[in-house]
Amino acid sequence: MLPFWANWCNRTMLGEIIAIGNELTSGRITNTTSGFAAHHLFEAGFDIYAMHTIGDTPTLIGEALKRALKRVDFVLVTGGLGPTDDDLTTEAVSEALNRPTMPNLELLSLIRKHLEENSDQPVGSLDKLAWLPEGAETLNPGSKMAGFQLIHRDKPIFFLPGIPHQMRTLLVEQVLPRLATWYQGRQQTNYQRIYKIFGKTEQEINLQIEQIDLGEDVTIGYYPVFPDVHLSVIIRGDDQKTTLTLAEKAFLLIENHLGAFIYGRDQETMASVLGKLLTKQQKTFSVAESCTGGLISHLMTSVAGSSSYYLGGVTSYANSMKETYLGVEPTLLEQVGAVSPEVAKTMAQGMRSKSKADISISITGIAGPGGGTTEKPVGTVFIGLAYDGTTDVQHFLFSGNRYEIQHETAQTALNLVRNYLLTK
Amino acid sequence: MLPFWANWCNRTMLGEIIAIGNELTSGRITNTTSGFAAHHLFEAGFDIYAMHTIGDTPTLIGEALKRALKRVDFVLVTGGLGPTDDDLTTEAVSEALNRPTMPNLELLSLIRKHLEENSDQPVGSLDKLAWLPEGAETLNPGSKMAGFQLIHRDKPIFFLPGIPHQMRTLLVEQVLPRLATWYQGRQQTNYQRIYKIFGKTEQEINLQIEQIDLGEDVTIGYYPVFPDVHLSVIIRGDDQKTTLTLAEKAFLLIENHLGAFIYGRDQETMASVLGKLLTKQQKTFSVAESCTGGLISHLMTSVAGSSSYYLGGVTSYANSMKETYLGVEPTLLEQVGAVSPEVAKTMAQGMRSKSKADISISITGIAGPGGGTTEKPVGTVFIGLAYDGTTDVQHFLFSGNRYEIQHETAQTALNLVRNYLLTK
Known about the structure:
Two copies of one chain form a homodimer.
Chain A: E1 14-20, H1 22-25, H2 33-43, E2 47-54, H3 58-71, E3 74-78, H4 89-96, E4 101-103, H5 105-117, H6 123-127, E5 131-133, E6 137-138, E7 148-152, E8 155-160, H7 164-182, E9 189-197, H8 202-210, E10 218-225, E11 228-237, H9 240-258, E12 262-265, H10 270-280, E13 285-289, H11 295-301, E14 310-316, H12 319-326, H13 330-336, H14 341-355, E15 359-365, E16 380-387, E17 390-397, H15 402-423
Parallel strand pairs in A: 1-2, 1-3, 3-8, 13-14, 13-15
Antiparallel strand pairs in A: 4-5, 6-7, 7-8, 9-11, 9-12, 10-11, 15-16, 16-17
């Protein structure tokens, strides 16, 4: 059986990604850069044949690079370019490809200049950064970020730093344009859309999608991304116009079929979608949290521009905070306990009236691991929603660890507000 | 040149990790499971030779598995075991290793029983889960989690689901004990410690460490993990007692040398370390946030048991919230603006007096991308610290995007409280 892209392989350019660092193979750091690169390369019409993570070991680096050069059209190498002793990539590449390192004069003068301004730094360790394999071209002349390109036997190899934000900047600003120029017209047309779904399992969505006839050019993938499920829809073809028509048809079918269970797509988050709805309906919003401990507020304010609809919130972790800031009576807390529909209701009402928001929600529950009882086990959560003259309270029982219960609660609460705004 | 472990290769057992899924090679999902596995395997005394990420492509899966079996002692494969059409791992393994799939009767009866209880689910798609390659042994009999083990030519191969929490559970509860038994006495002794450092760059730490003589058995790694730098210290040896003595000596030297710049180690976070200090000194804490938007509160309450010292906080995103909940005068806001030392001071004092916490902090600043001016550019942040009769305010200018400014601010604020508690 051939790989799924075998029938395209004269057309789609293939790449491999090699991430280097003992911090990755010892599992101390999660490799996020390879996935980021794969995502952007894929969207630019390239396929990733494989991604590898290996330690700071010259022979392994050389082997991986040489194997990749035999079977793919370009290689992206990240990590091991820094000034410290465990950064061995440049050396390994020089050895593997028979290209002796030589000083890059421009880099050298940049480093010398930097050192004059910061006289407490040692010269030697930074000088290392200026020695690159023969034929290397720096990716970002004049910048302090390491990173270079080699064209080896007509195939581009890109070397980027492992530091995520530097790697991302160089990938987007330097690698993608250079690759696109190099392989101009040899990429396929790809349309990919991710639908973000909350409130249905992977299998429930699979069953629903199987009922639609999407045709052969549409590839569907189901991915549980806690607390959501992501549905990936990919349409590929040679001709841009035909592919686009196919894609639009498929997207429409899927959207009609899954309806409001799709809360967003691609880069959207529940908080950004809710933000758009609030902006459109000119409503303000505030949040009284307890067991989510600020998470909902944090999610809302992760969205740039959220200050135009999000007023803020109170995290009333201690009961005294519920009394002082939200107007919950001590006697009520004594009678029914902090985790109760009555307290959820008062919290939402108190938050709304004092903050003068149009809509307020309240959360009270037990995120665990401690604090559960037989009557109110860990995962018990009450969510209150106050708007106009009404306050609704819903009871939930979530499962999982503390992290999972907090995130499931936050997503559920934001989704309640979203559904309220969609139906009013 | 030989790989760095070549001189141990008769002793240290080597493994490879293969993660499968188009969602990974297309970059839609970040692979977190391989790193988790590497970390735990490393701590258990095994070395990871390489980690690979490949698509749901049977030939590639087979190739990667066969290559790994030639050069390492065990293989861990994750992903592609689910019920949907794009889950192809079992099939690929069966083909590559010449082991026809056969139904596992126990699994089959478990699935049938599950289906009787959930009659709306289709039989066929789940039945697939019960067909395993010849010789496979399920890892967790009686559970709904997929996962099996194959011993192929005397080498164990483990197949785990790609869903992170299932994979983690099976790795820790099933794979590690099975591997330890299989290769009993053939692992080396490893001691690893991660020091978490805030307020120094990778290179500054490198320079300081180079001044200490740690000896040849100590391997040091420097890793910027925004906003921290992590320092990894590994000591390896054959004899447990000698290695432990060496490790303890190295740890002590490093700790003395870097002092309070080390805020924690291994699994500790700034919030968990601060929590321990607050508990020890029997102090309560509350937070008035603005540009961090609930992040600090979220970090504090991510720690289990935080309710014993963390009272809660106010996210006063809108100016009206600063007035209502924190007692900031409207005239003050008009005169000096919300992002000012005066407002930071009033916020911290208002938070402390109303919440009755022993210590309160306040944050006001501009996280961007909008809102910056020449006088107060994006990244301008004031942090107030109120305790006893005093309120200190500090001025910062952080750089980066919204995410980075919010996280750098949060870490700086928590570190200020930590330093205050350390010196009092």
